[in-house]
Design goal:
Elements lengths: L4 E5 L7 H13 L3 E4 L1 E2 L2 E2 L2 H4 L3 E5 L6 H14 L3 E5 L11 H4 L7 H10 L2 E4 L2 H7 L6 E3 L23 E6 L5 H5 L2 H10 L4 E6 L12 E5 L6 H9 L5 E4 L5 H4 L4 H9 L3 E4 L2 H4 L9 E3 L2 H13 L1 H18 L2 H4 L2 H10 L13 H82 L2 H5 L1 H12 L1
Helix pairs in contact: 5-17, 8-13, 11-14
Length: 458
């Protein structure tokens, strides 16, 4: 069966990195028709009718009513359903920023439901496929590739940036634990080359408790639109790139995109010796891998002290990417894989699939619980808004009363001043009368006044 169109379901309104690598860019490169099932946040099943296959991204089942509607309509129309996974979201380590923030706490069971119920899973690596096969026996590997319609290959950046050699990391805040483990290496290099190094952290700001003789530059991510990010990345001026990953199962599920992107930017790199990088890097030829602080220090030292090695390694890395990892050479894998899925004869036969009815019921129960919490949260927020509004009105009234009180106080003060002036005038008048009564002229004319009064009485 030839697959020419796909109904794509994701709640992301932009084409960010995940959407670009896993769906939109490969399907576009393969000249497939993309029918979006969610437009401006509005879900619809119409895209299913117009498509040969249905594909949804990892977090889509988090909106349970929409997910169940998608599965129901797809079954009614006989359309195969694919769930794409690029991470082990059920295995987030305890110290991972997304787990600490509970970003996936509400959607993990729906994600599990989706993996079991889908016709098949597509994943990025063999390691992730082996890990998720216990949830779905129909699993296919679609690796990440560098989209050469967006990326160009910069000339190797050999010369120092200004007076400093610049070591750069580009990523997200989810890599903070990975960067944290390299602090001793950063400190050692700064002390070894005082005043000569600049560490640049793009998208994952870092702070150093101790004062080290190196420049630390943090840049916030400028955009999450992947096509725009590519332009930003290609404009970076640096000399060496780093891609640390803790050696834990969760990180072994990841792919090699840092190697692809750093190579295109024109940078040699030091990468953690974990599956994503050990599978693509020829040690010392197209990159270095390291697993201990001493190995990180040694690899960085070689690149810092040898500009010719930086250039040679970058050119070799770019050749590796051109040879094996360009999307234009591999986009055909998407319609070919979808065709295999459409022709599957066996449903998911993993052991856990037998629990699907109970799992769906648990998911419905959990969804009702979270909806209740959301309603309560909304009600509390509404009460808070009302209280804040009442508080704001009371504050206005208080301010008005304060103004009136100040005005009345001023009037009282004015009246008190006026009263003091009147009292002073009254006292002055009394003194004047007393002075007059006690004066010599008053006493001399007193008999005359009595005589006049007597005459008037007659």
């Amino acid at each position: 069966m030839k697959i020419q169109s796909a109904a794509v379901y994701t709640y992301e309104r932009i084409i960010a990195s995940l959407e670009a690598y896993r769906l939109f860019n490969p399907l576009t490169s393969a000249a497939m028709q993309i029918n979006r099932g969610v437009i401006d946040g509005e879900f619809s099943t119409e895209a299913i009718k117009e498509s040969d296959i249905v594909v949804f991204q990892r977090e889509f089942p988090g909106n349970l009513p929409n997910y169940l509607a998608l599965m129901s309509q797809s079954a009614a129309l006989g359309k195969p359903v694919v769930m794409d996974m690029d991470d082990d979201l059920l295995g987030l380590p305890a110290h991972h920023p997304d787990r600490i923030k509970l970003n996936y706490a509400q959607v993990q069971i729906p994600i599990l439901t989706g993996m079991i119920q889908a016709s098949a899973l597509t994943v990025t690596t063999p390691y992730l496929a082996d890990l998720l096969r216990k949830y779905n026996s129909n699993i296919f590997i679609l690796p990440n590739y560098l989209d050469d319609s967006l990326w160009q290959f910069n000339t190797p950046q050999v010369e120092p940036v200004g007076e400093k050699i610049r070591i750069i990391f580009m990523g997200t805040v989810t890599h903070v634990p990975d960067l944290e483990m390299l602090k001793p290496a950063f400190h050692a290099q700064a002390m070894k080359y005082p005043g000569r190094l600049e560490f640049v952290f793009y998208g994952a700001s870092r702070k150093f408790d101790e004062t080290i003789p190196a420049t630390i530059t943090n840049h916030q991510s400028e955009t999450f639109v992947y096509a725009d990010y590519v332009k930003v990345a290609l404009s970076q001026k640096a000399n060496i790139a780093i891609a640390p990953l803790e050696d834990i199962p969760y990180n072994h599920c990841k792919s090699s995109i840092k190697f692809f992107e750093y190579s295109a930017i024109g940078l040699p790199g030091v990468y953690s010796r974990v599956t994503p990088y050990s599978n693509v890097i020829e040690e010392g030829v197209n990159g270095f891998t390291a697993s201990t602080i001493n190995e990180w220090v040694e690899a960085l030292t070689q690149l810092l002290e040898n500009p010719q090695l930086r250039e040679k390694m970058t050119l070799s890395a770019q050749e590796s990417v051109r040879k094996d990892w360009l999307l234009s050479d591999h986009a055909k894998l998407w319609p070919e894989t979808y065709a295999q899925i459409a022709e599957l004869k066996k449903p998911n036969v993993s052991e856990i699939a037998s629990y699907l009815p109970e799992l769906v019921d648990i998911t419905l129960h959990q969804d009702a619980f979270f909806q209740k919490l959301e309603h309560e949260r909304t009600a509390h927020l509404s009460k808070i808004d009302n209280l804040e509004h009442e508080n704001s009105e009371a504050k206005v009234q208080l301010d008005n009363l304060r103004v009136q009180w100040i005005d009345h106080t001023r009037k009282i003060q004015s009246l008190e001043v006026e009263g003091r002036h009147l009292m002073q005038a009254w006292d002055a008048s009394r003194l004047e009368v007393v002075d007059y009564a006690l004066s010599r002229s008053w006493r001399l004319t007193r008999p005359m006044r009595k005589f006049i009064k007597f005459l008037k009485g007659k």
